[in-house]
Structures are given as C-alpha cells and as structure tokens.
Amino acid sequence: MKVIRARDIVDEPSLVAPHPYINFLRFLKRKNPRYGLLRLLQEAPTLWDALTVAKQRLFKRDRILKRLTRRPIARRRRRRRQRRILRRNRGLPRNGHAQVRRPIYKRRPPARSRRRKKVRNGS
C-alpha cells in the first residue's frame, strides 16, 4: 500500500477527494502533522466554520485540479526567467549578490578581458 503524502494529494489528481471538507482535513493534517486523529476531528469543524465561503471554495475538487493545470505553466515561466538572470561575481562574494538581468541578444556579448594589476617595484 502506498503512503499518502502531502505532495501526492496535490500532484496526483486521483487522490483529490470530491468533498471539500475531506480535502481540508488533508490540508490540516499536512499543516499539523503532530495532531492525532482525535484532535484533528475536534479542531477541524471550528476551523472550517471560521473560513470564509471563498476560502472554503479553494478546497473544492474543481479548484484544486485547475490549480494543478496552471502550475506547470508557471514553472516554465519561472525557469525561463531564471535562465535570463545572471548572478554577478559568482566567485567573488565581497561585491554582493546582486542579480542582473541579461540583455537579450542572440548570443552573449564577448567577455571582457581582465586588466592585470601593475606591480610596483618597491625599492
């Protein structure tokens, strides 16, 4: 038998329950893993009633599945943005960790050669 984990409930559409309250119980158990079954069933109804109708709708099966279909698109966008962002001075942390957007070229501009320090003869 497969152990149901939090990521399985969200990532696998077959594990999303048709009733929103059951999805809420899974969410609550994920947020409070130390709660036993008895305590979970004692505290869940009050927390469920405290939620607004809009928040309760987030636990409906249709809403969860729609969020699942949107997620891969958002991941692609994030990956594309991460490729465009360069870290300035990766090996030299003394200058800070500022992120710089790479200018959009078909190819990267040629790297500038570093200037060599002039050595002074101390005599």
Features:
single chain, 123 residues, mainly alpha, two-stranded antiparallel ribbon, 2 strands, 50% helix, 5% strand, elongated
Q: What series of H and E elements makes up the topology?
A: HHHHHEE
For the biggest β-sheet, the strand order reads 1-2
Strand content: under 5%
Low-pLDDT regions: none
* Structural domain count: 1
Oligomer: single chain
By DSSP, the count of extended strands is 2
Total helix count?
A: 5
Estimate the helix proportion, in percent: 40-55%
Q: If you compute it from the alpha carbons, what radius of gyration comes out, rounded to the nearest whole angstrom?
A: 26 Å
Structural class, from secondary structure content? Answer: mainly alpha
- Note the gap between the termini: 80 Å
Q: What's the mean pLDDT score? A: 72
Q: Main sheet, how many strands, which sense, barrel? A: 2 strands, antiparallel
Name the overall outline.
elongated
Description of the molecule:
This protein has five helices and two strands; from the N terminus they run H-H-H-H-H-E-E. The chain is mostly helical and 123 residues long. The chain has one domain (6-101). Helix 2 (20-31) crosses helix 3 (37-50). The longest helix has 24 residues, at 61-84. The chain is elongated, with a radius of gyration of 26 Å. The model has no long low-confidence stretch (mean pLDDT 72).
Please give the structural blueprint:
Elements: H1 6-11, H2 20-31, H3 37-50, H4 53-57, H5 61-84, E1 85-87, E2 99-101
Antiparallel strand pairs: 1-2
Provide a short characterization of the protein structure.
The protein has 123 residues and is mostly helical. It is built from 5 helices and 2 strands.
